[in-house]
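EI: anyone free to look at a 289-residue chain?
SC: sure, send it
EI:
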Amino acid sequence: MRRTRTMLLLALFGLLVVLFGAQALCVVDADEQGILVRWGEVVAKLGPGLHMKVPFSDVLVTYPAYILQYDSDPVDTVTKDKKNLVLDSVALFRISDPKVYYSRFRTMDATQRGLSDVIDGTVKLIASSNTMEELLSIKREEVLRRIIAIAREQTKDYGLIVEDVAFKRVSLPKQNEQSVYESMSTERRRIATQLRSEGKALREEIMSKADRERTHRVSEALRKSEEIRGIGDKEAQRLIAEATIGTGGELYQFLRSMEIWRNVLPQATFVIRPEGIFKDLLHFDPGKR
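SC: here you go
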């Protein structure tokens, strides 16, 4: 009986040792950071590894050491040029001081609510001081840098750091989509009309230039043809003069007589006397010089 009681006591003691040992040790993973909370008060900050704690009084609370994401709800904003926009933003942050973070938020749900006030408020503030064109294109990077700077300043006592902010989606309010669509359609029609007008004017200019070029080339061709014809006529006159005057005169007279006979006497019968008008033509001697 005594032996059995001793065994039970030893077993109970061993169980207590195991329980106390389990309660006295805690592990923080490599991608986490932790704090020890004793009766509601933070007594230590812990990095990755195996740590000791007071059993049954200390509680280990861990938070991610990597970058976290805050996805905001779409925010209705009014730009500097009185345009309504819906901005859907996303922010990246990390917990820099788990002790301050624990005293400020404790849970991720509370963090989301706190960041919502900061990020959404900052987005509205910056949007109201910039035009829609600046938000979407001209100053987009500068706008985001200003949002990040303001968000960091407002969260410096939260135990976290805002690493980045970006616009995930930029859209128009539902009630404005139709009017904006009609405005864009009107603008596109105006541009199309302008392009057609410019194309027509360019067409007229090209055709006018082509007509001038055609007229110039035809005139130049006519001028050159008249010059060539004049040169040909001059050469023909020279050849005729050489055939009429000089060594070729008799041959020319003979050819002219043949032409007269062919043109003047077709299908006709004449009696020609030597002393008539054809006397000289009938006495042509090709061997005579």
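EI: The beta strands are 25-28, 32-38, 41-46, 49-52, 58-64, 68-71, 75-78, 84-95, 160-171.
SC: 👍
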